[in-house]
Amino acid sequence: MxxxxxxxxLIRQIFQRANSSNRVQWEYINQKGFDFSNDNQLSESERTxxxxxxxxxxxxxxxxPVVEMLNFYAxxxxxxxxxxxxxxxxVDIAALxxxxxxxxxxxxxxxxxxxxxxxxxxxxxxxxxxxxxxVDSDHGMGDVIVRQPEPFDIYVDPKSRDILFKDAAFILxxxxxxxxxxxxxxPDYEKKIAKASSDxxxxxxxxxxxxxxxxxxxxxxxxxxxDSVDPGTGENDTLLEFFEMYEKIKVSYINVFYxxxxxxxxxxxxxxxxxxxxxxxxxxxxxxxxxxxxTMQAAVAAGExxxxxxxxxxxxxxxxxxxxLKSAEQEYMSELQAESSRVENRIVSEKEFKQMIEVPExxxxxxxxxxxxxxxxxxxxxxGDTLLSEQFLPETITEYPIVPLHFKWTGTPYxxxxxSPLIGKQRELNKAHQIMVxxxxxxxxxxxMHEEGSIDMDYWEKYSSxxxxxxxxxxxxxxxxxxxxxxxxxxFFQIVQEGKQDMEYLAGIYAGMQGDTGAQHExxxxxxxxxxxxxxxxxxxxxxxxxxALRQVGLIVKQYSQAVYTxxxxxxxxxxxxxxxxxxxxxxxxxxxxxxxxxxxxxDYAAAKFDVRIVAGSTLPVNRWAYLAELKELLKLxxxxxxxxxxxxxxxxxxxxAGRKSQMAQMSSKLQGMEGQMKDKDGTIETLERxxxxxxxxxxxxxxxxxxxxxxxxxxxxIAKAENQTLAEQRFYRDTIRKEAALIGKDLGIxxxxxxxDLQSSKEKS
Length: 766
Hints:
alpha+beta; six-stranded antiparallel β-sheet; flat
């Protein structure tokens, strides 16, 4: 009990330190911004002063449209998450995360929560989304849910410098709730809450805002004990402070490496397997050597191999067989040795390790130990002066479950709202309008200057404004003179006009974006361009503030869902941003063996490892008309189909139209199939006709070829005849020439003989 009391006192002390003067001033400034957006723009003292001067007390709320437009752009689209598997085996289960996240978001009415959080960020500088577990949901199986806490209930470590408060030493939630309400919230601690006492020194009501009959809204902190009713007794219920503190603590873990002694049965089984395998291998080797021996002996007998070569090859084969047997034996024995000296690792806490090391058997098996630290979230609940619970969140949860959504981050837990810069201009506009209306009122209601005692004042007050009234004056007195108000300076009208423009410029919400026809562009494309340029500042906020927050929400949803969804679960989701279509997602499906025992899980969601990302630009506002115009152009190019265009429209009965389109597409497909069959038949007929034509042509060609062949043979015959005739003529001429040459030769021989004889005769005579 003493430790519990110390813990309670410590958390209260942390709250007092966190609720510093800076924090109080920041809350006061941003509460004023929230008040101004809700048209609560005059304090009671300001209102009284105006009434004493006869001035009007109305206000012209130019901030509310800005807030509503910024909120619209921030929530125009539903956020989309996707996951990337860390390993190949995690790809399928990672793909299911988007469906699980959609289920949690839809089940929590995330769109409304996001709208409220964005509204808080715009008006109060910061909004929050909190991930929690509804332990009673799904018949006690639990469901992950998203909540939207009040920003001014959250107290963050002032030294935090991270935009998502990841580096904060603590995040504290402080609420003031009726005792009965707390008992309903935490039925397991009903008795503790009944005994808890409140801090009498605590001021619960919000005193910064003026009280009075003219106020236009109430703050949750204005609800005091007199407004709280115990439904059991009907009397006022006691208000108690409720604290929830989340702390990020580095917890020491030990990665223990130790030998695992083998079981006797396992060793015997391995040894027997080694013996059998070695026997089989030896037999195989002997058969191979015998076959080789016979083959080589036949080669030696046939004279194809020398005996020396035979002896050498047999020696080599025997040596190789012995080496293989030895290698196999070593391999099998190493398996046996590995089993006998197997090392496993296990991650345990430092406390568990100290207990394990005290066991002598474990100390002998210990091989190595590696110490490391992991972030754990410690969650503490306190009501009044009583500690309800203190425990660590599941190991999968390493981030704070409270995610901030800033409007303008300042590097501290005290950001700036969108409304704060507008308050000065709003007051300026209110003052200018009040003066202008007051001046016009004075101009329509005359005031009179008169001599003392010259008129009956009661009569003049009653009838001076009546048409045709006769107003008596004392004889000899000067008649009363009407007092006209001074004409207003044109500067007032200029102030009003410039004030409106300045507010639009400061907020980044221009008149054309709000549907002001006088400020819209003449052409449709010009209007779209102005809308695109006008939303750039808003898109920058969404990209650099909203999307990081939603990405963190997705990460924490992943951590919580893996801790909660460990049993078999079927999730039904409706596909967002598409033609409505229900989809079933099944996770942790048990797998059974032939005996009906569970041996594992299909789609083991808790064991999967994946990274969560926000789909880039999924939250960014899109001009619907511009987007539809772009889709139409893409439809013409064939990039998208008509169903994609239909999905992005707001037309009624979209699902029914899609169904009819699907039926028409099926009928069209059937019709095209029948037409294709008819075309095929027509094509077959045309082919047959062409074949017939070709057959006729072929016959004619064959007849022509025969005719050409005949003519070719005739030509060949004629050529042969001509050649034979030519050869005969050549032979005739050749024989004739030969005969003539022989005759000439004979004549020459006779003449030569004659001449020789003549010469011989001449010699003899000489």
